[in-house]
Amino acid sequence: MSGAPLSLPAGDARVAAIDAVLPQTQCGACDYPACRPYAQAVADGAAAINQCPPGGERVVALLASLTGRPLLPLRDPQRPPALAVIREADCIGCTLCIQACPVDAIVGASRQMHTVIAAECNGCERCLPPCPVDCIELRPLPEPDTAERQRLAAQWRRRFEAREARLAAEPARRQRRLLERRRAHAAAAGEAARPEAASTTADGRPVDRRQVLQAALARLRTRQRD
Ligand code: SF4
Ligand code: SF4
Ligand code: SF4
Q1: Are residues 137 and 154 in the same domain?
Q2: Tens-digit pLDDT profile for the chain (226 aa)?
Q3: Which of 88, 138, 185, 218 has the most CB atoms around it within 10 Å of its CB?
């Protein structure tokens, strides 16, 4: 594609317009952590327009039109559409692939077999390097038409943003859970130490303080659940 530059707005909208033509696999092959930072770098003039292998020549041409910069050959070989598949018999359930997947397309639990949700996988290859037993392979997919490509890009952007938001909120959630646990322990310890708490049972045996504490904690947990 060539000709007059497409209209490119200013500021954040300029970055959004560039991001809108990127494939949204969030693969990092452009040397940026995700599509949006690459869009920002292109908008700033810090990155060349030919660094997106999943986008191929099509995206180079679109970026050339958007920015008014000259066409360039693709820097790295094009990455065709693909789907990751886990050879489940070989999977050791280490969860490293789940942690690497930018769109939460893998399900599984520690020491359990993992599997890829085919409808969510974008073939970004991020799960391949961390797998310690090399049990993930890529299977080629046909090129989508324009409408399907746009639908997939929107889906992958949405899932990536949801994951980023979840990860960003995780430290605060962990802190909250820790505080709740500490409060529950403190409350249970207080209940167990109340002066009216008997030091001997009805038949004169000494009270097991640990049992009292555990019972108080159990009561608190029940109350919190209710
Ligand atoms: S799809 Fe393209 S722009 Fe997005 S992260 Fe991958 S290489 Fe970068
Ligand atoms: S399963 Fe692998 S290839 Fe598919 S989106 Fe997740 S990290 Fe990328
Ligand atoms: S990284 Fe490989 S071995 Fe580990 S859970 Fe994923 S597929 Fe299984």
Answers
A1: no
A2: 344 455 666 678 999 999 999 999 999 999 999 999 999 999 999 999 999 999 999 999 999 999 999 999 999 999 999 999 999 999 999 999 999 999 999 999 999 999 999 999 999 999 999 999 999 999 999 999 999 999 999 999 999 999 999 999 999 999 999 999 898 888 877 766 665 555 666 677 776 767 766 776 777 677 656 5
A3: 138
Q: What is the pTM of this model?
A: 0.80
Ligand 3 atom closest to 131 (CA): 1
- Does 219 lie in the same domain as 160? yes
Q: Which ligand 3 atom sits closest to the C-alpha of 106?
A: 6
Q: Is the CB of residue 34 below 6 angstroms from any atom belonging to ligand 1?
A: yes
Given a contact cutoff of 8 angstroms between Cβ atoms, the answer to whether 100 and 167 are in contact is: no
CB neighbourhood size of 217 (10 A): 18
